[in-house]
Here is the input.
Amino acid sequence: MAAKPSFAEILEKFRAIVAERNLGEEAVRVTVGTLTVEQAIGSPQRQDYPLQEGKEVMVEAAFRGSYGQAFTDRPHDFRGTLNEILAFDPKIRENRAVFIATLNAVMAHLGKAAGTRHCRDEEPEECADEICAYILEKYGRVRVGLIGLQPAILENLASHFGADNVKCTDLNPKNIGNKKFGAAVWDGRTDTGKLVDWCDLVLATSSTLVNDSFDVIREEAAARGKPLLIFGVTGAGVAALLSLERVCFRPHD
Here is the structure.
């Protein structure tokens, strides 16, 4: 039997949490606004993060004094109730970013998810090094398939595992077909299966939950028996709901 689409499963579980606590019936206001680069990640020394290049922006939801963030290339402001969020059509990408940010804020408020705001300044670089150390300790010197070109992570993977043991897929045409830090960058639209075939472990940006590519990644990894790890604040609440392995060592609450 085919697995339930991830977003349908997420929505079902989140709806149950909201109903159990009667949150949807209260006059709850949720605000989502687009953050500046400095608000989102501070002032890191390196200047090649997608957020700095304008390829993605971050939205932040506020719920009862707790916050949740999500990356998206289609930012959308929203103010309304949780019931309105639950009624969103998840096929619309703008809706998914608002939904995921809100999910993260609510899960943080309920103590069900931690680290729902992005690391800042030099913390992304430190986190990338810790991700590599974690993979080495738990999985050994494996071949890593990185989905989503996060430059600090890719550079650290190439340094720790060797560039020949790392390949990456990305959606940015500027990166596809080139090498970054000695590692090949393939097309994220067409080469997911090839990447999963090649690697021993899949490390995927949780932004794939917003751009609607996560289900393909999850299915490809499961079909081939490859471990799947996700990174980033976008996946904080979803990782808790779906019991996904998330590596994100310097996030903020």
The chain has two domains: 6-109, 123-246. DSSP finds nine helices and eleven strands in the chain. The chain has a mean pLDDT of 88. The longest strand covers residues 57-63.
